[in-house]
Amino acid sequence: MDATILNALRDPAGVPFYPVVFQGLYILTWALHIAFVLLSLGSMGLSLYGSTKQKSDSNWKILTPHLIQVGKISVSLLIVLGVAPLLFTQVIYDSGWYVTNTLSGVWVVAFIYALMIGYLMYYWYSYANKAGKSSNTLIGIISFLILVFAGILMHNFAVESIQPDKWMEWYAPNGVIDNSGLNFHIDIIRLAFMISLTIPVTGIFLQNYSDFLSTREDFSVDYIRFTKSLGTKMAITGLLISAVLFVIWMLRDGLLFNPLIIATIISVVILLIMASRSNKNSYATTGMLVIVALFISGVREYIRYSIISGMGYDIYSIPMNLEWESIIMFLLTFVFLGFTGVAFIAIMAWKVGKNEGLVYDCDTNPVLRKLGSATLWILIAWTGIYFVWGMFTLFKNSL
Ligand code: HEM
After folding, report:
1. Which of 98, 111, 146, 154 to probe ligand 1 with, by most ligand atoms within 8 A of CB?
2. Last residue in a domain, options 293, 322, 351
3. pLDDT 10s digits, 6-54
4. Domain count, the chain
5. 154 Cα to the center of ligand 1, angstroms
6. Residue 152 and residue 111: Cα distance in Å, rounded?
C-alpha cells in the first residue's frame, strides 16, 4: 500500500502550527494520560485485594479507602488528560483515528458506555466500602473489569490506526464489505506490557505516599514501614515484568538495538535501581518515572511515525497555515490559566495532605490565598475573552 489514500484523507486546511510541535505535545500529553491510567487501575486493583484483608488487618484498613480515593481521582484525571493526545493525533494523523472509528464504530460507542458505567460503579464501590457492605469487593471487581475493558478498546483503536496496510482487508475481507463496525484487533505483547506497568507505577506511588505521610504524627511508624515495603516490592517486581515484556515486544518488532530503545531500557534500569533503594527519598524516583514515561510515549510515537512515513505519508510535509489567533489563545491559556490553576490545586492538595486536623483553611497561607484569587480572576477574564473573541470571529466570518 502507498500513501495515496492517507494523503487523500488529510484535512485540506493543513495544520495551524509546525507539525513537530504537535508531535512533541502528543508525546508529552499521552505520557500524562497513561500515568493516570496506570495509577487508577493499579490502585483500584490493589484496593480490591485490600478490601478482602481490611477486616482483619489494621494496615489494610487504613490503606484500602485511600487507594480507592486515589483511583477515583485518577480516573477523572486520565479522562481529562486523554483528550489532549486525542486532539494532537487527529491534527497530524487524521486518517488513522477516523478510519479506526469507522472500522470499529460499535466499539467506539461501547467505549463511552463502558467508561460511564465503569466509573459510576466505581463510586458505588467506594460508598459500599465506606458503609462496610459485604458486596463492596464484587461491585469493585465488576467496575475494575469494565475499566480494563475500556483500556483494551483504546489499545484496539491504537493498534488499528497504525496498520493502514490492513485497513482494506479489515473493511472488505475477501472483497465483501463488512460494515458491522465490529473490527477488533489486539497486539497481545504490547497490551500485556501496557497493563504490566500498573504494578511499578502503583508501587512507586506507594513509596511516595509513605514518605509523604512519614512527617505526620497521626500515622504509626509500623504503617509507614508497611506501605514503603509494599511499594518497593511492587515497584521491583513490576519493573522486572515490564522490562521483560518490553524486550520481547521490541525483539519481535526488530527494534531492540535502536538507540531510542536502548536509551529507554537504560532509563528503566536506573529507575529499578532508584526504586529498590527504599531508604532513600522516593520523590526523585518519581522524577525518573516521568522520564521513563516520556521515553515509552516516544517509543510508541517512533513506531507509528516509522510505519506511516515508510508508506510515504510524511507529517512534516503537511501544509502549514499559521493561525496566530488560535496560537496566541492556546499559549495564553496554557501559560496563565494552566500554570496558575495547576499550581494552586497542587499546592493546596499538598497542604491538605500534610494537615493533621479535620479542616484546612487555605486563607491562612498568603501564597495560596493570592494564587487562589489569581486563578479565579484569570478564569473570569479568560471566559470573557473566549466568548468575545469567539463571537467576533463568528460574525466576522458570517456577515
Ligand atoms: C478507563 C479508561 C481508559 C483506559 C484504561 C485507557 C487506556 C489506554 C491505553 C492502555 C492506551 C495505549 C494503547 C496502546 O498504545 O496500545 C491508551 C491510549 C490512548 N488513550 Fe486512553 N484510556 C482510557 C480512556 C481514555 C479517554 C477517555 C481518552 C480521551 C478522552 C483516551 C485517549 C487516549 C488516546 C488519544 C490514546 C492514544 C491513541 C493512539 O495513539 O492512537 N483514553 N489509553
Report:
1. 154
2. 322
3. 888 888 889 999 999 999 999 999 999 999 999 999 999 999 999 999 9
4. 2
5. 5
6. 9
Q: Which residues of the chain have pLDDT under 50?
A: none
Distance 86 CA to ligand 1 centre (A): 8
Q: Are 289 and 333 within one domain? A: no
51/126 same-domain check: yes
The whole-number pLDDT of residue 279 equals 75
Q: Give residue 95's pLDDT.
A: 87
Please indicate, yes or no, whether residues 38 and 163 belong to a single structural domain of this protein: yes
Largest CA distance in the chain: 71
Indicate the residue among 296, 322, 348 that finishes a domain: 322
Spatial separation of the C-alpha atoms in residues 277 and 288, rounded to whole Å: 13
What does the pLDDT read at residue 292?
98
The CA distance from 160 to 165, in Å, is 10
- Are 200 and 105 contained in the same domain? yes
Whether 35 is in the pocket of ligand 1, judged by its Cβ within 6 Å, is no
Looking at the fold, whether 147 and 61 belong to one and the same domain comes out as: yes
Query: Does 351 lie in the same domain as 218?
Result: no
For residue 8, the model assigns a pLDDT of 86
Tell me, yes or no, if the pTM score tops 0.85: yes
Answer whether 45 contacts ligand 1 (Cβ < 6 A): no
User: What is the rounded distance in angstroms from the CA atom of residue 184 to the CA atom of residue 266?
Assistant: 34
Does ligand 1 come within 6 angstroms of the Cβ of 198? no
For 15, list phi and psi in degrees, rounded to 5: -115, 150
Q: Which of 32, 33, 41 to mutate to test the pocket of ligand 1 (most atoms within 8 A of CB)?
A: 33
Residue 119 CA: nearest ligand 1 atom is 1
Q: Give residue 121's domain range.
A: 4-322
CA 390 to ligand 1 centroid distance, Å: 30
Residue 332 and residue 299 share a domain: no
Specify whether 283 is located in the same domain as 383: no
